[in-house]
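Sync notes, pocket subgroup
Present: LS, DG
LS reminded everyone that the earlier model was apo-only. Rerun requested with adenosine-5'-triphosphate included. Inputs:
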Amino acid sequence: MEHMQQFEALFDHATIGIVLCNKDAEIINFNAQAEAQFGYTKDEVLGKKIEVLLPVKYRRSHVSDRNHFYAHPENKVMGHGRDLHGQKKDGTEFPVEVSLSHYHNKNEVYVIAFVIDITVRKNNELVVLKHREELQQITRQITQLNIDLEQKVENRTKMLRETLAELEKSKKEVTDALEKEKELGDLKTGFVTMASHEFRTPLSTIMSSAFLLSKYDSADDAPKREKHINRIREAVNDMKSILEDFLSLGKLEEGSVKPRMQLVPNAEYLLEMQNAVDAMMQLTKKGQRIRFTHDGAAAVFTDLSLLKNIIVNLCSNAIKFSPEGTVIQLHSACDGQLFTLSVKDQGIGISEDDQQHLFERFFRAKNAANIQGTGLGLHIVAKYLELMHGQIELRSALDQGTEFIIQIPQSNHEKDPAD
Ligand SMILES: Nc1ncnc2c1ncn2[C@@H]1O[C@H](COP(=O)(O)OP(=O)(O)OP(=O)(O)O)[C@@H](O)[C@H]1O
Ligand SMILES: [Mg+2]
């Protein structure tokens, strides 16, 4: 009897719901905790099918599940992998954990269901889940923030790099401008030095001729007057040509000389060359001859005025630096691909040392010290050729004569080579 009481106490005071069913799944016992969980009194459920404790939507499938269980009963925890729900008398559902047990008595199977209400655990799980989601959300936000930050840093770095490049560029512009300024300054200083030296001879010629002119006042003195007037004219011309060279150089340094390349037909080229040679003949020394030859019938792609200037410079050097009675050979050729022109003299030649510096402005070779000149001509020639994408070279040795050879590429007629 005492055992019976103990058993009832155990049954009624158990802290989990206990539902006992017979072989037909009818409830035959229902403990106090189950009453509390489901809201039914024991009397209300006795004799009812177990499904009364399930939400309506699960009842039908539960019937087949439990038939299967009754056929192969085993002790187990129900609902692996899915949530189980019970339904209270008032219709509310709540999550449960159920484990099943069974026993046989007089050849009949009895099933005991142990039910735990897991509402609190589920709620906690939900809270944990919510927290985890919030955490994930925050992590995502932080990751995004990080990406944004990195992007910002990258953008700033890029901007900084661009600003630096800009700064570098303006620095270069300023340096270039200063360099140019300095170049022009040097040029002017060079000019003052050169002019004070080179102008002295023609100026003293002018002074002495002017003085003598005032003396020759009789009619008989007419030839002498003529002679001195000519000297004055020549001296002024010399000074004028020095000034002109200097002005060309100034324009070149400023970058304001733009070549105007055009195709000059062969006949026009020959005529222009002949005119230039005729003009140069005026400057020759006694017995000096200029022999001009040309190969090819192709039109010449050039800036004619720059080319004539180059030829005048080279020929006047040849005349100036060779003795009387010598021949100056001027030869050109054009095959539509390349224009070449050479000026060859039988003059004083140029030493190898001096050849290195020939195209520097104001440079004059040692053996030319006593011959008039400013040292600007070849510098200007080289600059003009640079503008036409051409080049210049020379062959010379002391007292062996000199040959200057220039080349101007003819390939791209459509394009202005200075672009
Ligand atoms: N044909 C040549 N024969 C020998 N030396 C030459 C010849 N052409 C140039 N030179 C040397 O090169 C130097 C530079 O020539 P460049 O034409 O620049 O100056 P320049 O003739 O002295 O003066 P400018 O041409 O300015 O009046 C000359 O002073 C001379 O020493
Ligand atoms: Mg010269």
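DG: The radius of gyration is 58 Å.
LS: Confidence is low (pLDDT under 50) at residues 415-419.
Action: DG to write up.
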